[in-house]
Amino acid sequence: MTSQLFAICFNATRPAGLARFWSGVLGWELADGPDDDVAILPPDTAGFRIRFLPSQEPKIGQNRAHFDLTSTSPEDQLQTVARALELGGKHIDVGQLPEEGHVVLADPDGNEFCVIEAGNKFLADTGFIGALACDGTQEVGYFWSEALRWPLVWDQEQETAIQSSNGGTKITWGGPPVAPKTGTNRLYFELALLAEADWEAEVDRLISLGATRTGTGEDGGGRTLMLDPDGNEFSVQRPR
């Protein structure tokens, strides 16, 4: 049984506040749960949730992954930017050119994200979160395609992208050069299996594809931390 992408997790200095920001930007509802399990829920039950986990590790450099939000019109793009700024986001400069149509922002915890201009053809068949854009190799794109069984929808000049057969958000990797990894990633994937699935067999399958165990064992929530071929952390949740 293949793992499902259950959540995109943010390591956050203020999980509840960051959840309110992203809930307001995306229009997703806050999930009911204990104080240490802060999450927002997608409007489509087939999509992933976004979880916000407590962490006091300082942010070093740009994140290896960021959201690209889509727009239906120039006015819609402006409204998304304005809403993000009102909720505590800010404009940042990551080297974008003045003539580029997307707007680069950071959330209140400093995590970068982009609001893409209307008419972007690559993101036309997605949703509001058009892509999770990642800094990574072609190898890691192939790994995640096999791990999630999401088809490759782009594979050119070492750039890769995958998308669920049900549509929705794409996950992209920009190819070389890949910046050296410093510290624990702020954003990472959480995988989950159905209740009847063989968890150990799934972990072994992921290892056969190129993942490694971190050696830290399971946390209190039944999650095992692993690394993908680029050294990015991800977790695998035991069936409940």
UniProtKB/TrEMBL annotation:
Domain VOC: start-end pairs: 4-118, 125-239
Region (Disordered) residue spans: 213-240
Name of the protein described by the UniProt record: VOC domain-containing protein
InterPro entries for the chain: Glyas_Bleomycin-R_OHBP_Dase, Glyoxalase_6, VOC_core
Organism of provenance: Streptomyces brasiliensis
